[in-house]
């Protein structure tokens, strides 16, 4: 049973591959540059050179695999980029999977996505198109909608740690009363790995988050206590942040984009159903431990 993983060299991808290889599951990874996949090769992963925007390489990559785990996504870009890479890339991957006789398709979506929010920003629009392509494919599927994925080696948490440690003040956007529910990256990866053959989860969509759902005020207070930082907190209005993002979002390493602020303003980013916890029964890392691990 070979599993094809797309996005295997990103932040979450290597953790998913590692969880699969720990279970001795054969893995193939679709990678643009095998030179950047030495760690995957060391784990015994079969590398398929290609890209989700290249249908011919996608067809080659899915040949002979049992399951696809599709993690490819972008956070910033033009609307056309979201359509080409995320939406159309998923349609082409789904078509190739059907043609190759793939048994199950596991998709990474996003928490907060629903009928109300699907057109709020290009990222959500593309994620909705991805979900639709998978659900309408006729393939057996599992869709995960993760909250913020925290880890020491990528994602948003290292930037939060640097900000709490070194910035003269801690900027909290808006009132800080919106809630989030971060999940540790290895927990998220375990969900994806188990979805390959977990009974009773086929053709279902799961929201996944960690065991704690603090407000942003509570999150920053806990992070600063964990780091031993004594920076004051300053609340920054959404309007001011959007004006600043309009000037900086095209720059390399921009801290936040207007689209990200729009998603944040939609409200609490928390799990609304216990389905994932009940179906997979994973022990999840508490937020305080997540922050300790990131700070070490």
Task: Characterize the structure shown.
It is a single chain. The chain has 296 residues and is an alpha/beta fold. It has helices at residues 13-22, 38-42, 55-62, 79-100, 122-135, 157-166, 185-195, 216-227, 238-248, 258-265, 275-280, 287-295, and strands at residues 3-6, 27-31, 46-49, 67-70, 104-108, 140-146, 149-150, 170-173, 183-184, 204-208, 233-236. The strands form three sheets. It has a seven-stranded parallel sheet, sandwiched between helices. It has a two-stranded parallel sheet with strand order 7-9. The longest helix is centred in the first third of the chain and has 22 residues, at 79-100. The chain is globular and about 55 Å long. The two termini are 37 Å apart. The mean pLDDT is 94.
Annotate the secondary structure layout.
Elements (H helix, E strand, L loop, with lengths): L2 E4 L6 H10 L4 E5 L6 H5 L3 E4 L5 H8 L4 E4 L8 H22 L3 E5 L13 H14 L4 E7 L2 E2 L6 H10 L3 E4 L9 E2 H11 L8 E5 L7 H12 L5 E4 L1 H11 L9 H8 L9 H6 L6 H9 L1
Parallel strand pairs: 1-2, 1-4, 2-3, 4-5, 5-6, 6-10, 7-9, 8-11
Helix pairs in contact: 1-7, 3-4, 4-5, 6-8, 8-12
């Amino acid at each position: 049973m070979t599993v094809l993983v797309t996005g295997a060299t990103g932040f979450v991808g290597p953790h998913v591959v590692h969880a699969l290889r720990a279970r001795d599951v054969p893995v193939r990874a679709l990678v643009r540059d095998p030179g950047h996949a030495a760690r995957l090769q060391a784990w015994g992963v079969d590398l398929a050179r290609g890209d989700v925007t290249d249908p011919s390489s996608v067809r080659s990559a899915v040949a002979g695999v049992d399951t696809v785990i599709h993690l490819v996504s972008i956070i910033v870009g033009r609307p056309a980029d979201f359509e080409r890479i995320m939406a159309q890339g998923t349609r082409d991957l789904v078509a190739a999977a059907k043609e190759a006789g793939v048994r199950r398709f596991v998709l990474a979506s996003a928490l907060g996505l629903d009928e109300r929010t699907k057109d709020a920003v290009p990222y959500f629009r593309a994620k909705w198109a991805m979900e639709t392509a998978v659900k309408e494919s006729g393939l057996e599927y599992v869709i995960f909608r993760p909250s913020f994925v925290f880890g020491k080696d990528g994602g948003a948490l290292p930037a939060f740690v640097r900000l709490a440690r070194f910035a003269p003040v801690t900027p909290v956007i808006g009132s800080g009363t919106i809630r989030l529910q971060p999940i540790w990256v290895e927990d998220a990866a375990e969900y994806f790995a188990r979805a390959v053959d977990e009974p009773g989860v086929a053709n279902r969509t799961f929201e996944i988050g960690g065991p704690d759902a603090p407000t942003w005020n509570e999150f920053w207070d806990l992070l600063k206590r964990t780091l031993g930082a004594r920076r004051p907190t300053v609340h920054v209005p959404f309007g001011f942040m959007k004006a600043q993002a309009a000037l900086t979002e095209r720059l390399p390493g921009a801290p936040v984009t207007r689209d990200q602020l729009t998603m944040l303003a939609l409200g609490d980013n928390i799990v609304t159903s216990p389905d994932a916890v009940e179906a997979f029964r994973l022990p999840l890392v508490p937020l305080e431990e997540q922050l300790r691990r990131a700070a070490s």
